Amino acid sequence: MSESLLDVSDLRVDFRHDRQVVRAVDGLTYSVRRGQTVAVIGESGSGKTVSSRAVMGLLPPTATVTGSIRFEDTEMVGLAEKAMRRHRGRGVAMVFQDPTRSLNPTMRVGAQIREAIQTHENTSRGGAQDRALELLELVRLPAARERLEQYPHQLSGGMRQRVMIAIALAASPKLLIADEATTALDVTTQAQIMELLRDLQQRLGMALIMISHDLGLAASFADEVVVMYAGRAVERAPTRKLFAHVRMPYTRALLDAIPRLENASHSQLAAIPGQPPNLALREPGCPFTPRCPNATDQCREHAPAFAEHEPDHEWACWHPCADEVPA
Amino acid sequence: MADLPSDLVAAGVAPAADEAAVARAGGWWQGRLGVAVPAAMVLFIFGLCFIWPIIGPVPPPTGGNILNSSLPAFSPGHFLGTDAVGNDEWSRLLYGGRASLEIALAVQAIGIVVGGLIGAIAAYLGGWRDATMMRVLDVFIAFPGLVLAVAIAQGLGPSELHTIWALSFFSVPASARISRAATLRVREETFMTAARLSGTSTPRMLFGHIAPNILPQLLTYALLGMGIIMILEGALSFVGLGVPPPAPSWGNMIAQGQSTLSATPRYVFLPSAALFITVVSFNLLGEGLRARWGSQ
Amino acid sequence: MSSSTAPLSPPLAARAGLWSRLAGSPTLQFIIRRLLAAIPVLFGVTFLSFVVMNSLPGDAAQELLGASATPSEIHQLEVKLGIDKPFLTRYWDWLHNAVVGHLGHSLSSGQSVGSILGSDLPVTFELVGFAFLISLALAVPIALLSARKPNGVADRLSMMFSMAGLSIAPYVLALVLIYVFAVKLNVLPALGWVPPGQSLSQNIRYLILPAVSIGLGLLCFYTRLLRADLLEQMQGEDYVVTARAKGVRPWRVLSRHALRNSLFGLITVVALNLGTLLGFTVVIEDIFGIPGIGHELLQAIDNRDIPVIEGIVFVFAVIVVLLNLVADVLYSVLDPRIRYGRPTE
What CATH class has A4-260+271-304? Predict the structure, then answer.
């Protein structure tokens, strides 16, 4: 039995759209161990969401998945739908970005949680209701008993997200994927939810994949960070190491873009110039070339391979950044 | 987001969820038959009813010889037989189709012009004017149109023209509703605000800017409505309005044929089949266009 | 929590709370507003029909006495019937009587309009209600089966048949059904009516063909509508993804999650649809010889029997307006978002 819980290996996802083929994920490789928190960071269109959906088998029929996703010795790519359903919720669970739209507005909270429980366990309605109550208390939702009978819109955004987490935890999954779970929330609630996730993780021994565009969030909560760009992994390292020795110019730029208190007021935000590439047109070189300060002709012509250049630190770049010399 | 990941949608690579849903909701048949096949069918029917009687060997639909009455199908010279007074059934079918189609076209045209104008003006002006106009329209919609139709039949006497008036009673409010909804949507577009700010006069706004934008929707709706109007024309024939005999219309042929249903079912079934095929063609055409142009 | 000494005894306090919540409830205010808005419409409809009927040549007196009557005989009867008074007077008389429920008497038979309506309305209700119920009951499972595999076999077949069903005129269907089942196969009656009080089985036998004539078009319409909405839900809504992520089986996602939300859209359309439906009912009643409101209406117009016509038009209009209101209210009551108000923190 392998040590890692989830092994993503050379994952590729193509979408058929109007006779065009769009490659949303292009050779993604990373692993998650039991109890570990991995942050997958990237902009919109980087493929982070698509790759996580692939793990759950939640992609639309227009998608073609190749490569390998091994979850606990089971190959998920090409798995029959019936077997995949058994995994959803039980092995791997997901929390989505917008709890308002992700909860059925015409179904009571309790019923939605009970459904998550009863899909995988053969419990009575009463038993499931008790367990639902337990779950709501686990996610620290105040007045849990009343909340069970309420409808989603009667709860605030943060509460709804707690309900989503409760639903995700219902069948005791070994891996939880939080897809931009806190992006739609205000900063305070965001911190609360992240704390909750971390606490739950430690208590339940669950692995967590947090998908986000927020490097700062990753810094506070993740053990390991995978940076994605244009469907590829471009840098991966344990968090401390990544922040201490940033190599990819893209990651560097993301870091620089985080507004800091130390910066002078009204100074310009260091946004990354340019746009993410059009995924329908695949250029031969490195996809970051047009926006990269280190770009050369070599970058334009040959895409660098994603490899472990330093111990436990992988990246794909011809001209990585050097360590910053302290001022 | 359930359909295609939002990051792809945001990247402009994938269509938004609702477009995809509309396209798929249109169905397999729309894809296969599209717009071309129903359009061809409609044109064929029009050609048959309007052009063929002029250029082809079609006997007149009225003034038949009573000695020839009730001839069965495939009789010499009358391949669909004759009616109770000796008129050729095939000819009645064609001329009847012409009458029914004429009425429907007129009704829908009035609907688009009058109803479209009312709805667009109401939506454009907004406020209390809009509310009052809509209230008045509600009255017309709640009013049992059949009463009016029968009343017209009794009071003014049945004729093709009166039938058109009675049926416009249905088409005008319906078109007005569509036109109003469409205008409301178009009104919020930025180019509209730009035009208004640059001082474009109201009539010009209406005809130059709003009309071209709501016309596709109105037309699609009018096409879809052709079927219903033709069916309604038939219903009116049952209650005394519609085209007065002996001039044929599919509606009055069906209504008249009712009394001899067991003896000569074909008097009912021939115009019924013709009506059915025509309505299906219009419906398919309307649906095809709606799927093609998207339900904006 | 709450203090131990309350100003009112607990049950009374609870009821008072309920009433104040109800009075302030947005739903109730909504209902009242819509009812108020409906009044001018009712007013307009009845006035319009009064105008229309009065512009027709001839009147009840003339119809009753026939062609050979002399003008003085006609005038005498007019006075007796009270229809010699000016138009507006008559309308006003009718209106303020109608509002309290006195709809007058038939000019031709003398029977009170109320009792005429009382015997005719249930017949039409049964017919329309039956047609409506079977069509809705069938539309739901067919739409579910279609939406389960879009463009699959079941879907293509149901879409093809529903397009055909939509394109058949109800009276054509009626005549076809009569020809097949009554004339050729002789299993069902072509004409007539037996009230359910008399014999339920006979009642149903007479009901089947007319109900199917009306119901088929409805069935096709509802099926298509529901299917389109279901597909929209399944393909575009996030909560569907959540449900799938839980491992819920696709059929359950469709029937337990999407269906609830789709039924809303259906309710609104059903109510709006009812106006045209009533129109066709008249023709169907005529073809099958069913003694309902439609039949009565046609006769009344022939007889220039204004009170009866007005009574029927009034009832028609009230029904249409009420149904629209019910649809709006149902929509807001069923949608928990509106029912339970804003979120509590």
Answer: alpha beta
